[in-house]
Amino acid sequence: MGELDEGTTSGAPRRFGSMSEVEREPGFLPDNPIDATNYRRLVGYYRFDEEVACCYRKSTVLCHEGHRFGFVAQLADGTITLVGNSCAKGRFGVGTQFDIDRRTLENRRTLHDRFGRLAGLVEQQDDIRAMLASERAAVDVLKARFDALCLALGRRLVDRLEDMARTGQNTVSIRGVTTIHYVDDDGVHRTEHRKVDHRVGRVAGLEIFRHGAFATIPLEMQGVLSALDEAVAMTNSKKKVRDFAVARLLAILGDHARVVKSVARLNDAFGQFKRGDGVPLCYLVSTTGDRLRSAQHALRAQGHDDSESQARAFLSAIDERHRMALGAQRLEY
Length: 333
Ligand SMILES: [Zn+2]
Known about the structure:
single chain, four-stranded mixed beta sheet, three-stranded antiparallel beta sheet, binds zinc ion
């Protein structure tokens, strides 16, 4: 175990878990007044289930406020007493010996708690490493499926989907255009294009197309693994442990569940995209080849035969349906 060394003191500050433990401390006196003038040193801190009366001296009387958390102190005459948490923090001036000692003790307590949690994570390192390896394998499988999907959709459609993922725009719209020829009141032949916009649908699961969606997960995993290695080295080392170093490792390691969530989120997004009926995709690209690929994807998504002839029929059918719905001669998309 690494040393929790803070110069002259080491290890956890002493904790009193019950009043009887404090009462057994040699020199303990009940209702023993403490203030900055008779304070000598801190013995430790207490944390009880029930409240005990604070012995801070307020002019001629004791504070006597009940506290579950506070400090056990030795006075100049060698006797022992208690001071509650709020008096300990608020009544001894900043920079007094009591104030300095209390802060030192609290820092040691925080560091010791954190170090304990870090050591707990190091004990679970086999589980954490196994979990990361299995998540890594799951990401690789998902990435391979995603790459195959992109290949099937074609570069131009994937580019459009990446744009949509970047801007957060997930709806696909088309415009129905009808050209009307007529003669106006002055006998002039005129042409008017009537345009009606229409929302074809929404593309779900776009997150999978977000730039770096796959790249960040292995980095996060690597971060956790490196932090784990550092934590193992730290807990095996005899060197002094720095609070910020422990806090940093805890922040990375304590969050290893986030990696699992990232993988789950990508899996969900992929599933949502694949479950979509695929119709909106057919209006994100305009060349015949690209549209046929989109239509084939839509047919597969709907569990149908994805032959090219089926894809052509599918495109004609959806285009016709939208034209009819919009009462338009042609569609722009
Ligand atoms: Zn008090």
